[in-house]
Amino acid sequence: MKHHTHILVTLVLLGGLLPSLSVAAVTDQPFEKVAENTWVIHGPLEMPNPANQGFMNNPGVVLTSEGAVIVDPGSSLQTGEMVLRMLKEVTDQPVIAVFNTHIHGDHWLGNQAIKAAYPDAPVYGHTEMLAMIESGTGDTWVELMDKLTEGATKGTQVVGPDHSLNDGDVIKVSNKTFRIHHHGQAHTRTDIMIEVAEDGIVFLGDNVTTNRIPRMSDGNFMGNINSVDSILKVNASVWVPGHGKTGDADMVKGYREYLTAVYASAKQAFDAGMDSSDVKPIALEATVAYKDWSGYDDEIGPQGAQAYLEVEAAEF
User: Fold this and answer.
1) Angstrom distance (rounded) from CA 66 to CA 234
2) Which pLDDT tens digit goes with each residue over 258-301?
3) Which whole-number Å values give the CA distances from 173 to 54, 177, 198, 236, in the listed order?
4) 41-92, pLDDT tens digit by residue?
5) CA distance 77 to 110
């Protein structure tokens, strides 16, 4: 009896150290090779829910001569653990750095698993992202993920970036050069786009998505459009969006066209003396090519109204 009691107490104590044991592991999804040294898991396109266990983004891996660099390890402790499992199918090298593209938790809450396995690996994020996490935004994202997944991300804790970045920074990791692009408020105020100079690859974060309309409530339409215009000047051949399949420059331009169509619809309504509520019918017609994208039905109305407020602000 004492022996069994000792085992029970040990398991309880371990439960505090290993919170992921209390919920199911995220279903394994393999990395897809998108370039010579780069792999991406193209995550589900729907919002976080119990079925996808919160996993919905595009974790990426860049192999250097000394180890792996992870970009956006996902939405939870459990997703980060899945990324590490799948990484073993690609390489037996250690993780030597992590980059987070922006503040939205579906992209970075997986840091917890990476840091647990590789505590010396630096985690990079925009300066404003670090400030927002310090002020409590990270806790908000942990709570939101837990709610949306009905507990499937239980045990996830805030482990944010520990190295800050700004536009123009160049981070040398082994034999790879990571150039940081930040052009003000776009999808959020914290966005970085990451150019891997030697390989002609850009990780876009949610400044560009494909087959999924992301929420824009933390962003700015013209800022996002200008950021896309700026990054298209980079001589890259492989473009990794925050959601949806990796593609070429035409994929990037396709999302820009969506943003432009919504903003133009809002300006049309404003110039005609209409209300913000009148933008949606105009935008529905202007963006019909995107009607089958995940999230379209939920976002097109709010985004049209938001763009209208931005057009109105630009007039004064």
Assistant:
1) 26
2) 999 999 999 999 999 999 999 999 999 999 999 999 999 999 99
3) 30, 6, 12, 19
4) 999 999 999 999 999 999 999 999 999 999 999 999 999 999 999 999 999 9
5) 5
Cα–Cα distance for residue pair 174/215, rounded to 1 Å: 36
Give the rounded distance of the alpha carbon of 76 from its chain centre. 12
Radius of gyration of the chain from Cα atoms?
20
Q: State residue 171 phi and psi, 5-degree precision.
A: -110, 120
Give the three-class secondary structure for 306: helix
Q: Which residue carries 């780069």 as its tokens?
A: 38
| Cα 183 to chain centroid, rounded | 17
Instruction: Give the C-alpha separation, 6 to 194, whole Å.
Output: 50
- Burial tier of 257 (Cβ tally within 10 Å: 0-12, 13-18, 19+): middle
127 pLDDT more than 80: yes
CA 258 to chain centre: 19
Residue with token string 């034999």: 175
Q: Which residue bears the tokens 């949806």? A: 244
Looking from the CA of 209 toward its CB, the CA atoms found within 13 Å total: 26
Report residue 22's pLDDT band, with 50, 70 and 90 as the boundaries: low
Q: Where are the alpha helices (DSSP H) in the chain?
A: 2-17, 77-87, 111-117, 127-134, 137-148, 221-231, 249-271, 279-286, 296-314
